[in-house]
Amino acid sequence: MTLRVGVIGTGMIGRDHIRRMTTVLAGVAVTAVTDVDVATAKKVAEGLPGAVLHATGEDLIADPAVDAVVVCSWGPTHEQYVLGSIAAGKPVFCEKPLATTQDACRRIVEAEVAAGRRLVQVGYMRRYDAAYRALKEVVDSGQIGNPLMMHCAHRNADVPSFYEKESAITDTAVHEIDMVRWMFGEEITAARVLIPRKSRNGGPLQDPLLLILEMAGGALVDVEISVNIRYGYDIRGEVVGEDGTAALGDLSPVLVRSAGQAATPVPVDWRERFLRAYDVEIQEWVDSIAGGGVPLGPSAWDGYAAAAVSDSGVEALRTGTRVPVTLAPRPALYDAAVEVPR
Ligand SMILES: NC(=O)C1=CN([C@@H]2O[C@H](COP(=O)(O)OP(=O)(O)OC[C@H]3O[C@@H](n4cnc5c(N)ncnc54)[C@H](O)[C@@H]3O)[C@@H](O)[C@H]2O)C=CC1
Ligand SMILES: O=C1[C@@H](O)[C@H](O)[C@@H](O)[C@H](O)[C@H]1O
C-alpha cells in the first residue's frame, strides 16, 4: 500500500522532505500541499503529478486523498495542525519543535491521550543518525562504564535574520535536549546557561552560549551553541564514562593530504550533515503507519518534555540562574517514550 501524504509548509525542510518522499523513499506519495506562501506552494504542486494544492492546512487535513500529514510550517503554527490531524484521526509527522511552548505541547498530549492512540511523531532526526546510534550502542553496552558527562557542540555557519536570542535554545539546542534524553534514557531535571564573550559575527545575538543540563541520574551535559561559526555546520558529541569515552566519529568519507595539510570537508548545513538520518526517519515513519500501525519515533510526550526543558533553558538564559524542569505525570500511552524501538 502507498501512504498518501499531505505536506503543510513548502519552505526549506518541507521541500526537502517532499524531494525525499518522491525520489528516495518507498511506499509513499505526496498527494497534497499547502503554504501561506501560495506562489511557492503552487510551484511545488506543479512539480508533483496528481498532487492537489490546498488553500489552507485545515482543507489539506480534511482531504480524503490524504492518509497522513507532514507539518513543516513555522513552529508557532504547529499546534493547530497537529491538533487538527488528531481530531481527524490522521497520523501526523511534525517537524521540531512539536510546539513553541510546553503548554501548547501539553494540549497536544492531552488530545492524543483523549484519542486513545499514538498519532504524532516529532522530527527529532538525530535518533536516526548512524553516528548517534553507534554512540548509543557503545554507551548501552557498558563498555565505557557508567556515563558521567556528555560534551556537545552545535555549530551553525550562520542563521537567518529572524533568528532570535532565545532561538539558540528553542530552535537549535532543542535537538541536543531531545538527543540526551534518548541517549541517557532518562529525563533532564534542570538547566543553566553560561555566557562567554560575544562573537563579533553574532550581531545582536548572544553568541555563543553554553547550556548545562542536569540528568535525572546525576550526569551532566554541556552544549556549546555557536550559530555564526562561519566555517560550516559542525555537530559534536562525546560521552565520558567511568572507564572510557565514546565520541561521534569523523563523518567525511574522504581525508585529503595535500600541501602539508590533512583535511576533511565540513558539511554546509543540516541538510547535508543529516541527509541520511532524515531519509531513515521518514522511511521508518512511513513503514510504521502504512499498515495501520502506530508511529514508533519521538512521540508527543518527547516533544512536550523537550519543550519543558527548552522553557527552563530560556528562563536560565534570561535570569542567569539554575532553573529546574518540572514535568507533568507521563500518561501510560507514552510508557518507554524516551526509547526508540530498533
Ligand atoms: N529537523 C531539522 O533538522 C530541521 C527542522 N526544521 C523545522 O522545520 C520547520 C520549518 O523550518 P524551515 O523549513 O527551515 O522554514 P521555512 O521558513 O523555510 O519554511 C516554513 C514554511 O512554512 C510556511 N508557513 C508559515 N506559516 C504557515 C501556515 N500557517 N500554514 C502553512 N504554511 C505556513 C512559510 O510560508 C514557509 O514557506 C520549523 O519548525 C523548523 O524548526 C527546520 C530545519 C531543520
Ligand atoms: O533544526 C534546525 C534548524 O531549525 C536550526 O535553526 C539549526 O540551528 C539546527 O542546526 C537545524 O537542525
UniProtKB/TrEMBL annotation:
GO terms for biological process: inositol catabolic process. Keywords: NAD, Oxidoreductase. Residues 3-124 form the Gfo/Idh/MocA-like oxidoreductase N-terminal domain. InterPro entries: Gfo-Idh-MocA_inositol_DH (IPR050424), Gfo/Idh/MocA-like_OxRdtase_C (IPR004104), Gfo/Idh/MocA-like_OxRdtase_N (IPR000683), MI/DCI_dehydrogenase (IPR023794), NAD(P)-bd_dom_sf (IPR036291). Its EC number is 1.1.1.18. SUPFAM superfamilies: Glyceraldehyde-3-phosphate dehydrogenase-like, C-terminal domain (SSF55347), NAD(P)-binding Rossmann-fold domains (SSF51735). Residues 136-325 form the Gfo/Idh/MocA-like oxidoreductase C-terminal domain. The keyword NAD applies. Homotetramer. Belongs to the Gfo/Idh/MocA family. Involved in the oxidation of myo-inositol (MI) to 2-keto-myo-inositol (2KMI or 2-inosose). This is Inositol 2-dehydrogenase.
